[in-house]
Amino acid sequence: MKPWILGLTGGIGSGKTAAANHFARLGIHVVDADQAARWVVEPGRPALQQIVEHFGPGVLHEGALNRAALRERIFLDPNERIWLERLLHPLIRAEVAAHLADAESPYAILVSPLLVESGQYRQVDRVLVVDVPEALQVERTVGRDLTSEEQVRAILKVQASREERLRHADDVLLNDHDLAWLQAEVERLHRFYLTLRGGRQ
Fold first, then answer.
1. pLDDT for residue 136 is more than 90
2. What per-residue string of b and e applies to 86-124 under the rule 16 or more CB within 10 Å gives b?
3. Where are the alpha helices (DSSP H) in the chain?
4. What are phi and psi of 41, to 5 degrees?
5. Do 110 and 8 contact (CB within 8 A), yes or no?
6. Residue 17 known to bind ligand
7. 18 assigned binding-site residue
8. What's this model's pTM, rounded to 2 decimal places?
9. Are 129 and 189 contacting, i.e. CB atoms less than 8 angstroms apart?
10. Is 25 within 8 Å of 88 (Cβ atoms)?
């Protein structure tokens, strides 16, 4: 039987990666949309060629995509960002679908920080949001990425609001304790998910 798909999301510093890693340890097939976004622009893939034709060789560094240079270009001009999204989003969707199709576990997980914003939630059968109070998000991210509180708050502004994410959630994992608590919650959800057909009761 084809596995059903769980969409796993959460804001920056929420602990979604730690949650996804624990699901993977339990034998669940996990596909990361961020990794798929990197795969589609690898050297030799057609997307990289199109990006270079559009933006010029300045977005390359030693034959690979120079993300910082590209980011600068698309932040300066919103139309360029739209062009890039139109090129990449269908390719990322196809890449994700191909990797999910390889799943042999009872359900598979698509991890995406932008599950709600990108509309990827329409590709999944059920949505799990790893939720954390904003103050804790900021504290964890500043500690982890050695970045400033202002930068973290700027990232939070472009991500979907907590309310928006929670509105799309079928399940919420409140991650305001330690790692052992998070892992116990993942195991509890996993046992529940094994009882579902197509992501539903």
1. no
2. ebbeebbbebbeebbeebebbbbbbbbbbbbebebbebb
3. 16-25, 33-39, 46-55, 67-76, 78-101, 134-145, 149-158, 162-167, 179-193
4. -110, 20
5. yes
6. yes
7. yes
8. 0.83
9. no
10. no
Per the annotation, does 14 bind a ligand? yes
Domain residue extents for the chain: 1-28+107-196, 34-104
Q: With contact defined as beta carbons under 8 Å apart, do 46 and 52 qualify? A: no
Report the distance separating Cα 39 and Cα 139, nearest Å.
31
| 105 annotated to a ligand binding site | no
CA distances in angstroms from 144 to 27, 42, 75, listed in the order given: 27, 27, 25
157 is in an annotated binding site: no
The pLDDT assigned to 159 comes to 63
What is the pLDDT confidence band of residue 119, given thresholds at 50, 70 and 90? confident
Known binder of ligand: residue 135?
Answer: no
Which CATH code fits 1-28+107-196?
3.40.50.300
